[in-house]
Amino acid sequence: MDQLPDVTVTATDGAPLRLHDQPRPIVIYFYPKDDTAGCTREAQEFSALIDDFRAAGVGVLGISRDTPKRHASFTAKYDLAVPLASDEEGAACAAFGVWLEKSMYGRQYMGIERSTFLFGSDGALVQAWRKVKVPGHAAAVLEAARAL
């Protein structure tokens, strides 16, 4: 993937959100599930830096396969500032190549690989982070975004 895929997800308010129509540059991060330890910390770290991303002129959008209603509850519970979107059908996950077979305690299952993508103002992929470890990740993404 060299360019921002032209897929549509659902905003927390239920409205369709076409990724191609979002202001750029933009950071799009995929995470497995709302209200789990790692995903909560990741959303909190991006939320804590959202003003810095905006000051750099870079948007941020978190995507999982949770419903818009669940996103709204998650956002309210943790007072998140980062916008979230739902990919219930999995089109965005497929386009970004983040829907993969995973393994936990010897059990195989399909799930989202925690990944982040930075796209420039022209929609070209600038940098991708795969198999993300949460602590300090949002700050590293901000550093890359500021370098644009």
Walk me through this protein's architecture.
- By secondary structure, the chain is an alpha+beta fold.
- It has a single domain (19-146), classed as 3-Layer(aba) Sandwich (Glutaredoxin), CATH 3.40.30.
- It has five helices and nine strands.
- It has helices at 37-48, 50-55, 68-78, 91-96, 137-146, and strands at 8-11, 16-18, 26-30, 59-64, 84-86, 99-104, 107-112, 115-119, 125-129.
- The strands form two sheets. A seven-stranded mixed β-sheet has the order 2-1-5-4-3-8-9. A two-stranded antiparallel ribbon has the order 6-7.
- The two termini are 19 Å apart.
Given the C-alpha coordinates, what overall shape results? Answer: globular
The assigned structural class equals alpha+beta
Biggest sheet features: 7 strands, mixed
Question: How many strand elements?
Answer: 9
CATH topology group: Glutaredoxin
Q: Give the DSSP E fraction (strand runs of 2 or more residues).
A: 25-35%
CATH class designation: Alpha Beta
Mean pLDDT: 96
Kindly report the name of the CATH homologous superfamily.
Glutaredoxin
CATH architecture: 3-Layer(aba) Sandwich
Measure the end-to-end span.
19 Å
In DSSP terms (H or I, runs of 4 or more residues), the helix count works out at: 5
Read across the widest sheet, the strand sequence of neighbours is: 2-1-5-4-3-8-9
Please indicate the count of domains: 1
Radius of gyration (CA) equals 14 Å
Please mark out the parts with pLDDT under 50 across 5 or more consecutive residues, or reply none.
none
